[in-house]
Amino acid sequence: MWDEIKVTIPPGAEIHPMIKKIYEAFVRATEADAKMAEAEWKRVTHEEGSPQFSFTAAQLDVYGVFELQTLEKVLRDARPEAIGPVAEAIRRKIGMTDHYEHEYAFLNAYYNAARQRMERGLLFGKRKLDKYDTGAGSGT
Question: Domain extents for the chain?
């Protein structure tokens, strides 16, 4: 959402001090909203765990339904001996070189993002059964 402001500056007036005053007034007027938005962002990232990670469409399209169901089971079981290796395998497969301290949060974020993308694709008749599915004959 954008607001518009029209300012008429008299000839010969100093522009920079006026712009500075407008900026300061804008910051004061929007400070409460900015703090509220930041608090909401922190709440969402804490509850859902995913916005701290971002993935490209290509990274989310690497796996299919089978792998996503397998990842869901790994997350549900939450066995520490499985979380690290699965996170490492996914990072390697999707080309992410970063290592995250909280592997479970990474896997949860990837699962949620991939599932949402897959569900959106299903609305348009696109389905990928597994990582080997090229889409030829599955409606894609």
Answer: 15-48, 57-123
One DSSP character per residue, 6-50 reads -----TT--HHHHHHHHHHHHHHHHHHHHHHHHHHHHHHHHHH--
Q: What is the pLDDT of residues 42-88, one digit of tens each?
A: 666 665 554 568 888 899 988 888 889 999 999 999 888 999 999 99
**82: part of which helix (H) or strand (E)?**
helix 80-94
Work out the pLDDT band at 134, boundaries 50, 70, 90: low
* Nearest alpha-carbon partner for 87 in 68, 66, 64, 104: 104
Q: Is the dihedral of CA 111, 113, 114, 119 positive or negative?
A: positive
Can you read off the two tokens belonging to residue 93?
A: 């497969």
Query: What is the CA 29 to chain-centroid distance, rounded?
Result: 29
